[in-house]
Amino acid sequence: MAATIKDVAKLAGVSVATVSRAISGKVVSHELKSKVEEAILATGYRPNLAARRLRARTDDTIGLIIADIRNPFFTRFARAIDDIAKTRNQHVILCNTDENPEQEKAYLDLMEEENVAGIILAPTLLTSHKHITSRKMRPAKLQRPLVLVDRRPDEMIYDAVLIDNHAAAKKLVHHLYENGRKHILCLYGADSRTGFERQKGFDEAIKALHLAGESVAIKHGKDNLAKSLKNALAKNPQIDALIVTNGVLALKAAAFLNKAGIVVPDQLAFAAFDDEPWMELVFNGITTIAQPVGDIAREAYHCLMERLENPLKPVLQTVLKSKLIVRGSTLKARPTTI
Fold first, then answer.
1. What pTM was computed for the model?
2. Top-ranked range on mean pLDDT: pick from 48-57, 105-114, 255-264
3. Which of 3, 71, 117, 259 is the most exposed place for a label (fewest CB within 10 A)?
């Protein structure tokens, strides 16, 4: 069981108030301070960082919790938030959950201990909003405002900045259909809310256009994409197009297609989400949905600052548009931007 401030006070032979003053940096005698420090070391007590920081405002620090630092979208998003914060002389505490809800909860605890001004969060798929709402982050209370990004919340109780994933996925399917593709495979992130939304948009477009479509879930952290893709293509040789729902999956899929000797786009059209620099270097460029990362970051930051200034304003959900960039991986014509 973790040591408490009472344990420290008992061992040091002082009051709890004296321990609190010593930890907070208030004036205590050198003798008492030494006793408290020795007792802290002996008990292994970890002072609450929030308590130590109560004397100072923390408007200069915000928290940023992202779901997967390996995902190029989140890498660029984190950089954009940090760049914006610097212009206002603010610091950013960055945490990566690896799509793990328990890690997310731990980092939310950390943000409370650090007493940050507010938090920008890309929640995990399995996030229990109980461990968020229990922190009294609802706008009506707002001890610590929270803005969600990229993943749509279950309830409209938080400000959120998103793109329309359904519409974006449908846009890709329609593009492939217009270029003669009729049997489309979708590989999506099984641990991502975004992946599920894009997969749902894919399914809706497939049904609306009366196409043959198949969706395969790829679990986070599992190197099963190559196996899943190989099995799907072997099971259904008629598949003539592939969509992957994020940049991490796109890189793995491109590596598999290249190694397998599959000619893109002659044998298989290939489209993805997240426009990354490397996507212009293979298959005469990969057709992709480009997300406005800079705009998402600016909107999220602005929303957080607005919430700090006006805690009781109505909850705002901002939905931004994505852009379809057509390149050689889905057609033989000269690459263009739509």
1. 0.74
2. 255-264
3. 259
Tokens linked to 321: 């548009």
Query: Are β-strands 323-326 and 336-337 bridged in parallel, bridged antiparallel, or unpaired?
Result: antiparallel
Q: Given pLDDT bands bounded at 50, 70 and 90, which one contains residue 58?
A: low
Whether the predicted pLDDT of 195 surpasses 70: yes
Closest CA to 214 of 173, 255, 163: 173
Helix (H) or strand (E) holding 159: strand 159-163
pLDDT, mean of residues 237-255: 95
66 and 144 part of one domain: yes
- The residue range of the domain holding 19 is 5-47
* H or E stretch at 177: helix 165-178
Q: Provide the number of structural domains found in the chain.
A: 3
CATH code for position 81: 3.40.50.2300
Residues 154 and 226 in one domain: no
Residue 52 lies in a domain: no
Mean pLDDT, the chain, integer: 86
Residues belonging to the chain? 338
DSSP string, 89-147: T-EEEEEE-TT-HHHHHHHHHHHHHHT-S-EEE---TT--THHHHTTT-STTT-SS-EE
**Same domain, yes or no: 207 and 330:** yes
pLDDT at 33: 82
